[in-house]
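User: Teach me something about this protein's shape.
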Amino acid sequence: MRGNLDEMAREAFREKLHPLVGQNGTKLIVDLSGSERVNSAGIGNLVALTADANTNDSRVVFCNLRPYVSMVISVTKLDKYFNLAADVDAAAKALRAD
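Assistant: First, the predicted structure itself:
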């Protein structure tokens, strides 16, 4: 993803990512290295994508979290809900382990 995780990202999530995890058994890596900031709408996008994946027996791993995004996810305790990885290689390894 490029740009802030906010209400402006909603369309990209809806049009590009949700259709992927809507297919049963999809394994998706979302690289967040291009996202410096996140707000409540962005957190909502991440939660909705993860919930959609879980509903469809798919899996999504978020990786390369920037410091602010990582802090917000940690403070909101969503690090217990999301599948997070340090980088793309670690995310791919986590998905292969499933």
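Now, about its shape. The chain has a mean pLDDT of 95. The first strand starts at residue 27 and ends at 31. If you'd like, I can walk through any region in more detail.
User: That's plenty for now, thanks!
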